[in-house]
Specification:
This is HPr kinase/phosphorylase. The protein is of the alpha/beta class and about 325 residues long. Helix content is about 35%, strand content about 30%.
Length: about 325
């Protein structure tokens, strides 16, 4: 399970969260594991069972106005009850003035109290996106990821079978390399898998006999991209090991990654076969399927119709005109 500390969120600069620490520094090492955020309005109103302490609590204008309209001792009591639940973090939006009792309670319980200049809606959107990027499941796998006609094609296979050479041919055709050799895979809600290159290997590809090539420098920035949704998994197998390869296109096999079922095809590799072309056609075929057109099923329907017509004519010729 991925985790992230409140200190990591506070020190994050690229996400544009613009946070400052006001109190509760001892709680900065608290870890969170869910990319979910809560506004604790119901908890402040006395419905404490609705509170999820493991979620970051965002206090906007509504929450602070609600506290300001309470008697001071009652507002302090509500905040004390909130902090006693050991919430992981409190964040005030819109650079609003912080009531003294709020700072005191956060400091007393070691609850990190942060503030941002952003509006609540904007901040929640940015923070949710950041947490999803950092907290949802990730893994690494061996292969090549290429963007072909907007279809993210993950090419897999044993070492030396020609994955990188296939990807290089696709790049020469104008398609875009995402990652070669090691791919970092991220799950993103609701059920999407993204792939991206590792920092050190970004834009690089190994071609046996040539060594390490920088695809971005060789073919320009239009030949690469940072990350891509994975839409299709292609496994290259040696000719002769292709007993399970689909011959008619009717089988809908899938590849499971982080619980997501992805379309999957196996392509035999042999001298004389243009694998780049076959992979490109596989991507075009997947694009058609996503648009609701299935070539193999259409052909099967035409074939069954023709067979039914032939059977009817044959029966008619034997039985005669009285066939119902």
């Amino acid at each position: 399970m991925q985790t992230l500390s409140i200190r990591d969120i506070l020190e994050e600069k690229e996400a544009g969260l613009d946070l400052e620490l006001l109190a509760g520094a001892p709680g900065l090492e608290t870890l969170i594991s869910l990319p979910r955020i809560q506004k604790p309005g119901l908890a402040l109103a006395g419905f404490g069972d609705s509170l999820h302490p493991d979620r970051i609590q965002v206090l906007g204008s509504t929450e602070l106005s609600f506290l300001a309209n309470m008697p001071a001792d009652e507002a302090e009591k509500r905040m004390r009850e909130l902090c006693q639940r050991r919430v992981c973090c409190l964040i005030v939006t819109k650079n609003q003035p912080i009531p003294k009792f709020l700072v005191e309670q956060a400091e007393s319980f070691g609850t990190p109290l942060l503030r941002t200049r952003l509006l609540s809606s904007d901040f929640i959107s940015l923070l949710t996106r950041f947490l999803e990027e950092r907290l949802l499941p990730t893994s690494t796998l061996h292969g090549v990821l290429v963007d072909v006609l907007g279809i993210g094609v993950l090419i897999q296979g044993k070492s030396g079978i020609g994955k990188s050479e296939c990807a290089l041919e696709l790049v020469l055709r104008g398609y875009r390399l995402v990652a070669d050799d090691v791919i970092r895979v991220r799950f993103k809600l609701p059920s999407v898998i993204f792939g991206e290159g590792m920092d050190l290997l970004h834009y690089h590809m190994e071609i046996r006999g040539l060594g390490i090539l920088n695809i971005k420098h060789l073919f320009g920035v239009s030949s690469v991209r940072e990350r891509k949704k994975i839409d299709l998994v292609v496994e290259l197998v040696k000719w002769g090991d292709d007993k399970d390869c689909d011959r008619h296109g009717l089988d809908e096999t899938t590849y499971q990654l982080h619980g997501v079922e992805l379309p999957y095809v196996r392509i035999p590799v042999a001298p004389g076969r243009n694998i780049g072309t076959i992979v490109e056609v596989a991507a075009r075929n997947q694009l058609l399927k996503e648009m609701g057109y299935h070539s193999a099923r259409e052909f099967q329907g035409l074939l069954e119709k023709r067979m039914a017509e032939a059977a009817h004519l044959h029966a008619h010729s034997i039985i005669g005109e009285n066939l119902e």
